[in-house]
Amino acid sequence: MRRALLTPLLAAVLTGCSLLGQDQPCTAADADSQVSAVWRPADLGGRDAARIRLCVDGTCEERTSGSPDDPFALLSVQLPDHIGASTVPVRLTVTSAKSGYTVVEDSTRARLTEQHPNGTSCLPTTWTAPSVPT
After folding, report:
1. Of the candidates 104, 101, 103, 102, which has an alpha carbon nearest to the alpha carbon of residue 92?
2. What pTM value is reported for the model?
3. What per-residue confidence (pLDDT) applies to 10?
């Protein structure tokens, strides 16, 4: 009888399971606090037809629009992990690589929400906003 009780208990301990459903194991996904812009390069013309500049709370990142063969392109601005649940200014500028003219210039405010990619009781805690469509 004693052996019959110890076997399931030992199996639960060895697999990292909890009898009460607590202390669930964490996954190991890494994530950063950030705001991102997503676009379809084909909408902007040929390869690298435009420069995309994304500024969030005074920090800017820039890249070319990419290949029209790619279904989507992404540009992210990383934020400090301690930024918390705040609202940050976001500015997007799209400039023609050929003429140098600004094609799109827009700004908004993005509300950051708390994310736990490895589970609610697991690190890291990051702060993100929905992607800014271009």
Report:
1. 104
2. 0.75
3. 38
